[in-house]
Amino acid sequence: MGTKRLVIGTLVGGVAVLATGYLIFTLAFSEFYAYAMNSGSATGVQRDPPLLWAVAVGAMSFGALVTLAIESRPGAGNLGAGIRIGAIVGFLLWFTADFTFYGISNVGNLTSTVVDPFLELVPGAIAGGVIAVVLARIR
Fold this sequence. Notes:
Elements: H1 3-28, H2 30-36, H3 52-71, H4 79-104, H5 110-119, H6 121-136
């Protein structure tokens, strides 16, 4: 994999993660996460307004990770494989982060810790599909 492919995959994947993340976590499930972030003694931990530059940096990192996963699998340059790889990466990334945060802090609750990795399948899958389709055109 060349630098050009990594940069393009990172950018399109990051934009896909930002867009789907906004739709899912800000529009569709904002009340669920607002409750989860303010339950127990961890109240008032959600930034208002959020630091969008930091969210974008995280999304680009997610895009780079999915790009590296797709590019490391021979024959994974199609939509179906990209969706599958992106979903797996998204789930495992957030399963790790959510349970680690749950274990070491009082941010969130067990319900959000279990639900979040499954919701993260969607941005990961969409990013993976977009990355695979775009990179297939750059052979």
